[in-house]
DNA sequence: CCACTCTCTGCAAGCGCTTGCAAGCCCATT
DNA sequence: AATGGGCTTGCAAGCGCTTGCAGAGAGTGG
């Protein structure tokens, strides 16, 4: 008990010079106490109460070996008594580790991403880390700033959801060997650790399935053009047609944006063609719902008059309106794998980059069937 | 330039004792450098390059007055040259402020909440703060731990989305005058700053509108019973019936959970009653979609055979399937107001608590109409 | 020309914690 | 009984930054 006072004093006075400065120090301390609103117990308080040094308290908090059992219990009792909670910031500063990872994304409010987040959140929690979520809302100029701040003492590593083009800050991070993982980035990213779905192969398989059903005129509604997956999916579409010897008809290809409203209008356009498609593929389930709406409003029956194939397999796909046939990406798994990869990088940042490609799966439900009328090629 | 070395040295040696300890210090420094992976420039480096003291650099970074313009420019040039980024953690530790607020919620992946978050995110950004999002996934035992950690140096204030019962930690926070705001907590919360919608009055107005249309048998599908708003909405339902002199029929009241699937089954139950309702109110738009599905599967036309009234007015309400009549809560505004209140508390934590009740608005779209057949009361 | 007031800058202390080093302790071994 | 070595513990230094205080210039009025 008496030791404690000494320790505290030693701390306060380390390097102090004169009596006057001592007096000053005291008044400063008073002011600081007044300024700090929430004065909670520190390891020094715990040390005082339990009669050990502050470093021993620190060791107990961090579960170090080489602390006598009786001491550990005394310290833990003191912590419980005082309601001690470690000061995350101070610990981060001293140790250089924050036990938190950052997640940087443009938006969180779409069903695709919220599932990925779930996987991330779950795995981060398993690893004993915290998750710091930052949404940029497409303000690209804020993105670099966020990354700089986050990577600078706020988090130990970064998960980034990115469109096609690699921003400059990615190069910075790479040069510094800062641990980060790109999610759903199906474009070139030299030297980066990336997780994405097999967009190309998945789409090819889906289109091949439609062709196998007998479809020859297959509409393609793309995703946002600034997203890598969009191009890969189109490549898969092309590949499937090529393999089946079906010529690509530009009129059947429409640019979309993953969203329902655009899915509706794009489908309406396709359906009003002189030779409308008998099947439509969209780059997202949400957009596929829009296609279903357009089909309904055009008086078409799905799948009799029109087959619709989505991409993602979000939860709603199975129960909303018609059960949607779709190409499933393992969204939750993607989130989890991304975190696992990041954890590995945290342990050793120098390891060579890996691209992890998650397999997709064709999920046939009730919106796909052989074409009713054989269309003239 | 030469000053810098002195400053650094003075720092390193403050309180040092002997030559041996100096040597030790050096080797420690080396080890530390090796351990810290990302050695980025600090204010000391900027100070060295620009030839001023580190405190001047700090003042420039923080935009203090009393820095000569030429000095400021020199420092800024040095910062740009070195690519200096402030170390958030260190700054937080030294100043006691983190410039971040925490948001604690169970889930983020429902359309209700994602809109609230948008408002929060926007307003937080306007205020120049960062947002730290924590989801507890209903693991209540983790909640208290999160709050303790967050309130302990990670963030300056807390936004909390809470079910009915106030957890113990809320009392702690209050006792410590830690700034926090409860969102969507329509239950007693003495001494707490709370934001919620006018659940009771809004529902009463909605039900009154249905009664005015001529409905007498109005089904009520509640929200989750552990949420305060659920009870207030039921109270509004009761009040409207009472005012209209319509006796409450228990068979028309079903417990729900805000979700679509339960909305479907609950509606199916209501519709299979001997005397089914001619209108159904649900405590969320999402659940109302389930009701619409059940009506469709029961061969009923909406609104001819069944009126459906939701609550929330999420985005989908206006475009998904039938345009849904609903009671609009200003979700985005609620998020924004919560942040504004928190900012005010940050400035002065001692001010008396306020409950902010946001008005709701009846939005009549295409799922409500006078009953087709006059039902026998 | 001096006292006085502003403006500007530097120093030291400290935020709460981690961690290398060293010293003390205790026990087994020779 | 002395030595060695493994446990325990304490001390000091430092993580990168903020900030009160004091001192140094630069004006300004008497």
**Number of β-strand runs of chain A:** 12
- What order do the helices and strands of chain A follow? HHHHHHEHEHEHEEHEHEHEHEHEHEE
Largest interface, chains and sizes:
A-B, 49 and 49 residues
Fraction of helical residues of chain A? 40-55%
Which residue ranges of chain A are poorly predicted, with pLDDT under 50 across at least 5 consecutive positions? 1-37
Count of helix runs of chain A: 15
Q: Which assembly state applies to the chains in this document?
A: homodimer
Describe the protein's architecture and organization.
The structure is a homodimer of 377-residue chains. The first copy, chain A, has 377 residues and is an alpha/beta fold. Chain A has 15 helices and twelve strands. Chain A has helices spanning 2-13, 19-35, 43-50, 54-61, 69-82, 88-95, 111-126, 140-154, 168-175, 199-213, 228-244, 260-271, 285-297, 316-319, 331-347, and strands at 100-105, 130-135, 157-161, 180-183, 193-197, 218-221, 253-254, 279-282, 307-312, 325-328, 355-358, 361-363. In chain A, strands 2-1-3-4-5-11 form a six-stranded parallel sheet, with helices on both faces. In chain A, strands 7-6-8-9-10-12 form a six-stranded mixed sheet, sandwiched between helices. In chain A, strand 8, helix 13 (285-297) and strand 9 (307-312) form a beta-alpha-beta unit. Chain A is elongated, with a radius of gyration of 29 Å. At the A-B interface, helix 6, helix 7, strand 2 and helix 8 of A face helix 6, helix 7, strand 2 and helix 8 of B. Chain B binds a DNA duplex (30 and 30 nucleotides) through residues 7, 10-12, 14-17, 21, 24-25, 27-29, 31-32, 36, 42-44, 52-56, 58-59, 61-62, 65-68, 71, 86-87, 89-96, 153.
């Amino acid at each position: 008990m008496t030791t404690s006072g000494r320790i505290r004093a030693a701390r306060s006075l380390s390097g102090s010079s004169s009596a006057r400065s001592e007096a000053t120090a005291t008044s400063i301390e008073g002011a600081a106490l007044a300024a700090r609103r929430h004065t909670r117990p520190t390891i020094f308080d715990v040390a005082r109460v339990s009669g050990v040094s502050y470093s021993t308290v620190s060791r107990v908090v961090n579960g170090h070996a080489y602390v006598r059992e009786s001491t550990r219990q005394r310290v833990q009792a003191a912590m419980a008594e005082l309601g001690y909670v470690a000061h995350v910031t101070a610990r981060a500063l001293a140790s250089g580790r924050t036990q938190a990872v950052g997640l940087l994304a443009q938006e969180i409010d779409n069903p695709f991403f919220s599932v990925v987040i779930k996987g991330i959140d779950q795995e981060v929690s398993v690893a004993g880390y915290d998750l710091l979520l930052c949404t940029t809302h497409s303000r690209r100029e804020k993105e670099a700033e966020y990354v700089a701040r986050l990577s600078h003492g706020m988090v130990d590593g970064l998960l980034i959801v990115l469109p096609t083009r690699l921003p400059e800050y990615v190069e910075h991070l790479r040069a510094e060997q800062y641990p980060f993982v790109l999610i759903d980035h199906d474009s070139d990213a030299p030297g980066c650790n990336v997780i994405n779905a097999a967009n190309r192969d998945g789409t090819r398989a889906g289109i091949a399935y439609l062709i196998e059903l007998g479809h020859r005129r297959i509409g393609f509604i793309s995703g946002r053009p600034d997203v890598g997956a969009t191009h890969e999916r189109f490549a898969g579409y092309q590949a499937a047609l090529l393999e089946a010897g079906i010529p690509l008809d530009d009129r059947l290809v429409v640019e979309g944006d993953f969203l329902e409203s655009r899915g509706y209008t794009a489908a309406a356009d396709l359906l009003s063609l002189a030779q409308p498609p008998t099947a439509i593929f969209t780059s997202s389930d949400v957009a596929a719902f829009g296609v279903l709406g357009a089909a309904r409003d055009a008086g078409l029956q799905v799948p009799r008059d029109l087959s619709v194939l989505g991409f993602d397999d979000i939860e709603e796909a199975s129960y909303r309106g018609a059960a949607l046939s779709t190409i499933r990406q393992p969204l939750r798994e993607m989130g989890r794998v991304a975190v696992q990869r990041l954890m590995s990088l945290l342990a050793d940042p120098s390891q060579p980059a890996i691209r992890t490609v998650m397999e997709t799966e064709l999920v046939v439900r009730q919106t796909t069937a052989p074409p009713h009328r054989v269309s003239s090629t």
